[in-house]
Specification:
Elements: E1 2-7, H1 12-21, E2 25-27, H2 42-45, E3 54-58, H3 66-70, E4 75-78, E5 80-81, E6 84-85, H4 90-101, E7 117-120, E8 129-135, E9 141-148, E10 151-158, E11 162-164
Antiparallel strand pairs: 1-3, 1-4, 2-3, 5-6, 7-8, 7-11, 8-9, 9-10
């Protein structure tokens, strides 16, 4: 059986490494890099977590050193069921691993239509109304039109920060 930790932002690698040093299997599933990504590039180094902020871990039967896990650097809390560590069946984690290996599990792109009003949710243009223009060839990038200086200007953004208005 697997258990789950809630970890600090971007703390997944640190927690998995710490667990490994203590003989505990840790797993933080990641989406593969987008197609045509050059090894070592900025896009390649960007972490794409399937479950951001969560790490699965597996321990041997009779494990007693729960404090080692609860107080590990980067751990916020352990998910629990009725006061005991919560469990996730091996089948679930194996299924996630299989889907990632087959590349049948991928990040979703927003389903926005050209001309649809959208809202930029973070960054320097946060809370600016915009009009969706198109998905770009680079995965997870979109182009929107924003009204600046009296005219519509195209802006390229991370798709994760753009949402349908209203």
């Amino acid at each position: 059986m697997w258990h789950v930790l809630h970890v600090a932002p971007n703390g997944e690698p640190q927690v998995c490494k710490y667990l490994g040093l203590h003989g505990i299997e840790g797993y933080a599933p990641r989406f593969p890099p987008p197609p045509r990504t050059k090894p070592g590039s900025v896009r390649d180094r960007r972490q794409r977590w399937v479950f951001p902020g969560y790490v699965f871990f597996k321990i041997a039967d009779g494990f007693e050193r729960w404090d080692l896990i609860r107080w590990a650097p980067g751990v916020r809390r352990m998910l629990q069921e009725d006061g005991d560590p919560g469990t996730v069946d091996d089948v679930v984690v194996d299924h996630v691993r299989q889907r990632l290996a087959e590349r049948s599990l991928s990040q979703t792109r927003p389903t926005l239509r050209k001309g649809q009003p959208v809202l930029i949710q973070s960054g320097p243009l946060r809370m600016v109304d915009a009009i969706f223009e198109k998905n770009l060839d680079a995965t997870q990038r979109v182009q929107v039109l924003v009204q600046l200086l009296g005219r519509s200007m195209p802006v390229e953004l991370d798709a994760a920060i753009v949402g349908a208005a209203g």
